[in-house]
Request: fold
Amino acid sequence: SQQGEEDPQALSIQEGENATMNCSYKTSINNLQWYRQNSGRGLVHLILIRSNEREKHSGRLRVTLDTSKKSSSLLITASRAADTASYFCATDWERSNYKLTFGKGTLLTVNP
Amino acid sequence: DGGITQSPKYLFRKEGQNVTLSCEQNLNHDAMYWYRQDPGQGLRLIYYSQIVNDFQKGDIAEGYSVSREKKESFPLTVTSAQKNPTAFYLCASSIQGGTYGYTFGSGTRLTVV
Reply:
């Protein structure tokens, strides 16, 4: 399976701390995307990083991609209670015909 | 405002009954997708369509059917052949190629009663 695997499965931190989530995948990709899901809601696209990029920033988000290790990380800096959600990585892998394959997610809890 | 709308938000199905979940988008996206999410799990692809009047099976298509008669609409029917339909169903859309990410609806929670 190409499914990405997030690590850790759950993460609990205090407000103001940084949160780091990791994603590993198995085959070559066109791009890797991170999504956020609040409980019982749809997913929201956060950031997309292409296979030829190594790092991208968006506000308090920083994503890195290491294609040699087939892994990515999502860093949320200065976390807030409102960041509490599940975070999923999704891979658009080569020969997938542009379909995304999602991991099982990391549940982030930010305590006030 | 552009977006993607799923209805109903909650749906209850009796044994042996077919039910249809609605998904409508006004983003002018070519591609649409249906995913199933079970508790504590990732999303699994049921069906997808990259163009009107064409659709492809995903990883777990058995017991489901779709149609794509209009660009804006991609309804999903959960048939009686789907033995374990209780789940959260998510519809998404994207431009052709999906290179700018997916836009998701807010989901339909289906429960068998």
